[in-house]
Amino acid sequence: MVTLASLTCLVAGTVLAGCAHRFATRAALAETAAGVLLILGLVLIGLGLPVFR
After folding, report:
1. CA-CA distance, 38 to 19, in Å (whole number)?
2. DSSP 26-53
3. Which of 25, 30, 33, 45 makes a 20 to 30 Å CA pair with 9?
4. Where are the domains of the chain?
5. Is the pLDDT of residue 37 over 60?
């Protein structure tokens, strides 16, 4: 379950970062949201590691 959530966050963050240039007035907001999604995806991967269980 955590793997699916992590993968979803990473893919959504990557897609949003790739499309951020299309949002002329809100490019910074889109890039920030993409960064948050990418970090969240990495945190979810980290939480799934056996070291933290």
Report:
1. 14
2. THHHHHHHHHHHHHHHHHHHHHTSGGG-
3. 25
4. 2-48
5. yes
- Per the model's pLDDT, the better-predicted residue between 48 and 18 turns out to be 18
Amino acid identity at 1: M
The token duo for 28 is 């910074």
Do residues 40 and 14 make contact, with C-beta atoms less than 8 angstroms apart? no
Report the candidate in 36, 16, 19, 20 with the shortest Cα–Cα distance to residue 28: 20
Could you tell me which of 10, 11, 16, 12 has the C-alpha nearest to residue 31? 16
* pTM (2 d.p.): 0.81
pLDDT(32) > 60: yes
Q: How many residues does the chain have?
A: 53
Residue 31 · residue 20 · CB < 8 Å = yes
